[in-house]
Amino acid sequence: MADILVVYSTTDGHTREICQRLTRVIEQQGHSVTLLSIDDASNVDLTPFDKVVLGASIRYGKHSRQVYEFIERNLGNLDSKPNAFFSVNVVARKPEKNRPETNPYLKKFLRQIAWRPKELAVFAGKLDYPKYRFWDLQMIRFIMWMTKGPTDPRTVVDFTDWQQVESFGLRVSNM
Hints:
Elements: E1 3-9, H1 14-28, E2 32-37, E3 51-57, H2 65-79, E4 83-89, H3 104-112, E5 119-124, E6 126-128, H4 134-146, E7 156-158, H5 162-174
Parallel strand pairs: 1-2, 1-3, 3-4, 4-5
Antiparallel strand pairs: 6-7
Helix pairs in contact: 1-5
């Protein structure tokens, strides 16, 4: 049995939902999981954990600044143990952009950091127009219009492949 830390950075809560599903899958394999928001992980000591997973959403093409800071602060500990990273973004709804080697946001992110995660995943996110503030709603609708996605402001679409999330949870359990 391993003690696994799962840290997430979320904009609208969907990455947290993905982490909650990962947690259930990992715990079903007999492991212990500590789930933390990146907001609560600034002073966490990674040393006692056997494995670390970091998940982060994309907003306007970027991961949160806190994700970069967490990696910089914990690079030595991350590199010293089994670890994984996953990115959540709506562009991953497209089959040609839903793998680590084809997702433009994940590829760009990996070029910007010194950490080389041992396991990687990309999950399609959730579009939840009714939840967005006015300017986010307008910007995301424009982006969706440009990329031929849904634009109706009443739309809520979960693009996440939950089987893919569960498979990733099993990979984390076995690393």
